Structure formats: C-alpha cells, structure tokens
Amino acid sequence: MARFFKIFVVFVLVVSLALFALSRTENGGAAIVNGITPSSSFTLEKDVSFGNHTRDKVDYYMSTDVGASDRPLIVFIHGGGWHRGDKSMYKFLAEGLTSEGYDVALPNYRLYPEVKYPEFLLDNARAIAAIHKRFPSRYLVLMGHSAGAYNVMMMAFKPQYLEAEGVYSCYTVRGVISLAGPTGAFPMTDDPYTTIFPDLMQGDDAVLAHTNQPLPPLMLANGDADSSVSHINALKLGEALNGRNIATVKIYEGADHTDTVKWFSRHFDHEGALKADVIDFIENLPADQGDGFCK
After folding, report:
1. Structural domain boundaries enclosing 5
2. Has residue 204 been placed in a domain?
3. I need a surface site. Which of 27, 31, 130, 150 has the fewest CB within 10 A?
C-alpha cells in the first residue's frame, strides 16, 4: 500500500510539473506532456517523406477506432512563428483527437531563415497534396495553431497553392480550423517577422485580403487573454465574412496563446470547451452533395 501511494504521489508530481511547464513554455512543456500521454488510441508512422527537403516529413497518427476511416482526416500544421517548432511536439494533440476517433497527419515545413513568405506555404501545399494522394477518398480538415493557423487559412483563402499541387480545396477540404491565427488585423512590427513578411501581413500576404471568394466552413478560435495573437484577428475576419454563414467564431474568456493548443491534451481538456467545440464543428460539417463545400 505504501509503495502504491509513493507511485501515485510521483505520478501526481510529474503531471503537475507537466501542466506547469506547458503553461509556461510550449516547447519544453510539450515534451513532458507527450511523455505522460498514452499511445493506445493510435498507431504511428513517423517521418514519411513528401519531398526532397530535410523537413519534408509527415507523421501519421492513425486512430484505432474502427470508424475513423469514415471521418475526415485532420491535418494539423504546427506553430512557432515560422522560425521554430516541429511536428514531434504534438503527440499530445494528436492523441486528443485519435482518442475521439480521428486520424491525424502532422507535417513539418521549412522555417526562417531558410525560407520566408510564401515558401513555407508551398511546403504545406505539397504536404497536403501528398496526404490527399495517400488517402484519395478521404476528406480533409485543415487545422493549425498560431503560425500554422495562418498557413492553413491561406490554403483556403488562396487556393492557388493547393491547386498548383492538384488539390481542389472546395472538393477536398471540408473545413478549416484556426487556433489563434493571425489574419492581418495588425501589421507585423518585430523581428524576425518584418523579414519573413516583407509586406508586414498587410498586402497580398494577409488572410483578410482574400475574403471575396468561395470558402469552406471555418472555425476561428482565440483566447481573449492571448498577448501573442490578439483575438481581434478572429473577430475582424469573422466580421469580413459576416452574412456568408461560413465562419464560426469562438472567443474563450481568460484563455492565452498556449491554451488554444494545450486544451487538446487529455491532461488539460477539462480546463476549456475548445476541444469539444472543435469536435462538434467537425461532426456538423455539411455532407458532400456533389457541388463541393465552399460558399
């Protein structure tokens, strides 16, 4: 009994440390949370190549749920300000979705200073095309956090990127989910972003510059305590799309920049409604009636 109690205390301490670490720093905290995240809800195929660059790799987390193949496959693009981050950080997020019966693909992409806008978008388009080629009968839901949220939005708002790779988003992408994504509501003012985006996300590089075209259903999620990407980004995009019945805007009271990704972890999902809202959004996406998903 005493040994069991000691093991339990150690487990509680490890979980508490993980929760604290992820609340302070996404990178270090993710490694700890991943370490205490089980793997029973998926099979993992790591580092599948989709090109010639070192970072042209994708991880596939395939749910053990027998109904997963009947659901959209979720493609998650990581954040990190376009100059850091890696797919390996997000086992906890993938497990949070595979345990709900969804397959998840996590691709990498090249980062600054190796590339700047729009090269990383070209990488995302190539990755999505490779995923679609592997699962040609599966619809996709594109989801990203922070920089990755911007990237997935641009896949829909500038469909030329996907079309150049033979993917027609209105017929393949059932929905797009932005978790704290910048939309161009404010100009880039700090390094290295002023170099990554020469137009400071105020020109053709802004999501807000491309709202007058057919788009798949969108979910725009942000915390109102996010000091990295203001929730005004989501509100302004929602306003620009007002009347088209395609954008679901969710602003989470008290949530910061990290909350909108960490709440997918089984160790955090009780703290906010975001994960449940995302699942609800996906489950209620319109069915294919033969004319695509865009409005």
Report:
1. 1-36
2. yes
3. 27
